[in-house]
UniProtKB/TrEMBL annotation:
Enzyme Commission code(s) on record: 5.6.2.4
GO terms classed as biological process: DNA recombination; DNA replication initiation; DNA replication, synthesis of primer; double-strand break repair
Name this polypeptide is given: Replication restart protein PriA
Annotated family: Belongs to the helicase family. PriA subfamily.
Keywords, alphabetical: ATP-binding, DNA replication, DNA-binding, Helicase, Hydrolase, Isomerase, Metal-binding, Nucleotide-binding, Primosome, Zinc
Coiled-coil intervals, chain numbering: none
Residues holding Zn(2+) 2: C557, C560, C575, C578
Gene encoding the protein: priA
Residues that bind Zn(2+) 1: C548, C551, C588, C591
Alphabetical list of NCBIfam families matching this protein: priA
The protein's enzyme class: isomerase
GO CC aspect terms: primosome complex
Cofactor note: Binds 2 zinc ions per subunit.
Gene3D superfamilies registered for this protein in UniProt: P-loop containing nucleotide triphosphate hydrolases (3.40.50.300), PriA, 3(prime) DNA-binding domain (3.40.1440.60)
Amino acid sequence: MSELLNFNYPPEQAVERVTFFADVILPLPLPKLYTYRIPFEMNDEVMVGARVIVQFGAKKVLSCIVAEIHQNAPADYQAKYILDVLDDKPIITTPQLKLFKWIADYYMCTLGEVINAALPSALKLSSESRIQLHPHYNPEEDELILAPQEEKIIYALQHNQALTFTDIGNLLQIKSYHKFIKSLIQKEAIIIYEQVSDKFSPKVVKKLRISEHFVQDEGMLEELFNQLAPQPKQLDVLLNYLQKVPVHQDIHLNFKGIEKSELTNSPHLSASSINTLIKKGVLEQFDQVVSRFPVEHQAKLLPMTLSEHQAKAKDEILGLFKEKDTVLLHGVTGSGKTEVYIDLIKHALDGGGQVLYLLPEIALTAQIVQRLMKVFGEKLGVYHSKFSDNERAEVWQGILSGRFQVVVGVRSSVFLPFHDLSLIIIDEEHEASYKQYDPAPRYNARETALMMAHLQGAKTLLGSATPSVETYYNCKTGRWGLVEMHKRFGEAQLPEIELVNTREEQHRKNMHSHFSGKLLTAIEERLNRKEQVILFQNRRGYAPFISCDECSWIPKCKHCAVSLSYHKYNNELRCHYCGYHERMPHDCPACGATTLKSMGFGTEKVEDELKLMLPSADVQRMDLDTTKKKNSYQQIIADFETGKTNVLVGTQMVTKGLDFEHVSLVGILNADTIINFPDFRAHERAYQLFVQVSGRAGRKEKPGAVIIQTRDPLQPIFRKVRSNDYLSLYEHEIEERLRFGYPPFVRMIKVTVKHVDERTSENAAIVLAKDLTDRLGKQQVLGPEVPYIFKIRNLFLQEVHIKLPRETTNLRSAKGQIAQAIFNLKLLPDFKDVRIVADVDPV
């Protein structure tokens, strides 16, 4: 909507009446809620969970969410009036509001930041101050004395319907332009208004049908044919319509009509003839609101039947749900966990509840949605960031209306307005992708979903072949239930895993660029047998960096302390942290030499070299660069599923739950970089990645093989991967974490200090760490320290790590102390511009 909003209300009438106030959540990082006065005529319209429009500050008009309604006027300021109400029913449910408050409290952010992340953009309103000519002012006739700057503004408004404040500043090329706007308001030459646009709009299609009086009587329709006989093109349109809509068989079919595009897109029909029939009243054009998620009518499928071990797992899960709210399904890759999920979803829907099915990556939704759509049809909604604003808003509204009973989505799906949730499934629960890094709220969707289930009385099923250490610990200590599936579905066997020592292969001169002879031969054999191959390299781009052979110059990002990665496809150097990019130089800027070489390799180089070595291979790449477009995931996966491509090269995206029946070989090109990452979770993550990507090989009756290239085949992690020995990994990791004080025995909070000046950042971190140590104790505070990448987006970073023992720490009190220390630091004049970010449970 777009309208003039009047900010001035008449004085209170003498009649005594009840005055209500509303605490609202503004979509801004504000520490407190603001209180607004509800106009008497809106008393019955304003509801908790609905959107209202308010004026904030001198210029801004914002939409916000009503959090509470009461009769207590604010003590410190005079409450402004709510300007308008946007919703006739709440768009945020009571359980949602409770969840949002928990997120703000637990992840140490504001409710405004949570609302800003939760609501689709189409349900948030944009607002900017604008000026236009006063309706009663005529510049040609009214003789006002205007300053030269004022004349410029009036002249611009004569040629533009409205201008923003920014437009005025650019027009006058001065900073202090507000006085001229104020002067023109006093002279009644202009008015200020706020243009507020409700972004959500339903999808509307134009449809056609024959005007009703022609189909009520067969004689009228015959007469119409006679009248159109001299106009063969118009007659063709009518006959084409009747072929698509046989009204002679059922007159009611005409009411629904057909989409106008079905006729206009036909090469045999004249668009002008269609429009002529509309003008004559033969065809009636009308608009119809349609879903952005049309369900294709599919053949009725036979009921899905679980295997014996799948049925046993399902029964065990339902049995555990009687006494526990959370259960882990620990099943080896290919054990058929998805079929168990589907059966449990059916069970939940039969009980009248809603279901949320969480996945860690958008790439996974393409395959899963196809399977679920065949079972649940139009009850299924899909929610992720590749959808447009309007598509996400439609899913939001569809859940509120009850249209979608099952939702498949990525981490942001935990914000959706479920009101009768009975089951949450978190597939691949170990994945770090469930954690939001920037901006706030820095939530973990797994932990948030667990709280969501608690608030709605729902059950949670976690699923993984390689559970996180924390999750398995909760099962082993009896807090959560545990169900295990040790067999692959059907007759499928776990793949054979072979290690190739690339150090020895190089000595024998048996390396072909980054491919060992054994891996290349294995790929060729599979391609000759019409089988498929997945190659995993955990780095995108062509090469991690380039270097000058003469002077060793390496190009660095201008804004971050990292080298620029080479992307051959765009012939550019790119920073993977801030997005800065520049053209690939022809010669070295430092010494002028032309001997620039790429160092290391990424997925783009793997794809490029494989096409040269094996020209008969149809190679496709799946990484962040090739999946930027909305439907690129689906297209890449569809091409691989149908055999259009037979080698898929990818980053971690190819490791997560994708199921391709013709894949018989998986190659891991450089395992060492994953194992040797400086993080206490490095071995756990390496094991998870190797097992997950290995699980893509050998489904159904075809035996699979995995070839891992490494310079250190004696690394203990490989023995655990080859024997699929998760328990051994868990026992080693849990002992290490107990000894050195890491999760699950402590809660960790990482506080990052950022500033454009390196010394200021360092000094601020030292002061903060001292205050935190005084409050929490020396054993609980580590640092400050400079992170591995110490500069991102022109800001120098320092980190302070806080460890809070689970058994002895009052978490709420400790977070209060951390928040107070951060607040005190910001009060110091030297550090008022320092940015401080608290990340609870970093991964």
